[in-house]
Amino acid sequence: MSQQPPVRSTSAPPPRPDASMSLLTNVMDHSLDEGYAEAAARRAEGGTGLPGRLRAKLGLAAGLLLAAVVVTLGAAQARISAPTLAKEREQLINRIESETSAADSLQKNVDALRETVGDRQREALEEHGGDKAELVSLLAGATPVRGQGLKVVVDDAKQAKTGGGGPRESSGFSDTGRVRDRDMQRIVNGLWQAGAEAVAINDQRLTSLSAIRAAGDAILVDNKPLVPPYTVLAIGDGKRMSTAFQDSVDGQYLHVLQQNYGVRANISVEEDVRLPAAPSLIVRTARPQDGGAAGRTADTGKGTS
Q1: What global pTM score does this model have?
Q2: What DSSP state is assigned to residue 302?
Q3: Are 272 and 148 a contacting pair, CB within 8 Å?
Q4: Is 87 helix (H, G, I), strand (E, B) or coil?
Q5: Which of 17, 90, 225, 243 has its CA 20 to 30 A from that of 8?
Q6: Gap between the Cα atoms of 151 and 236, Å rounded
Q7: Residue 33 CB partners (closer than 8 Å, separation 6+)
Q8: For the segment 186-231, what is each residue's pLDDT rounded down to a tens digit?
Q9: How are beta strands 198-201 and 204-205 bridged, if at all?
Q10: Residues contacting residue 205 through CB under 8 Å, at least 6 positions apart
């Protein structure tokens, strides 16, 4: 007779006697929650007791506080020093204006003295020069003159560049588009050669002792700086002088400056040209050959200081 397999019971296990006190049982089994357990573990390991995220936030806050302190101190320092800098700047501006005014006053005195010396020299020429006094005065540039003549206006190129070394100073004739002192020298020499009897640049009368130089970017005539455009006036036969100048080597030189370097130039014949007298000059070396003036310094003529 076969045995019957044991019958397994499918009924639920009997409930625990303390099932109705599950909350109290959980408290007894887990006396510390996970947060307290984690803090206790970190303390046992020697940690700071603060979570990593909290430490990062505190570090960021400290950095922002330090940056704010630095910016605040910088702003306060700038605010304190601003009045001092403004005062020093104002004092410097006042000093520059004062020195400029003094220099202008001295220049006016120099011009007045030169004019006085020139007047006395002209009077001496008229008194002791005889019939040739007027001619000598004219040749020396001691008197203003007028007559027909030629007008040459020279200006820098439109795209001219400025530089601290002066316009086209290199020996290779590198161009900056600006008129240089050597350009004006050649133009003036060309006008003298073409028959000019008197020449002036920007109202600066030229004599046999005049000098055209460069100082940085400026052109000096008798140590006086000029600014472009440079107006050259020459008294003489205007039409013949214009033709002779433009056909000369110096006239062709000016044409090359126009074509190759953009220098602007204009030549026109004028019916009425007026030139001022040149600044006075004391000749310290030249001596007359005859008469009782031999052995004395001749303080006649004009030129530059």
Answers
A1: 0.55
A2: B
A3: yes
A4: helix
A5: 17
A6: 11
A7: none
A8: 999 999 999 999 999 999 999 888 889 988 778 999 888 898 999 9
A9: antiparallel
A10: 141, 198, 199, 275, 276, 277, 278, 279, 302
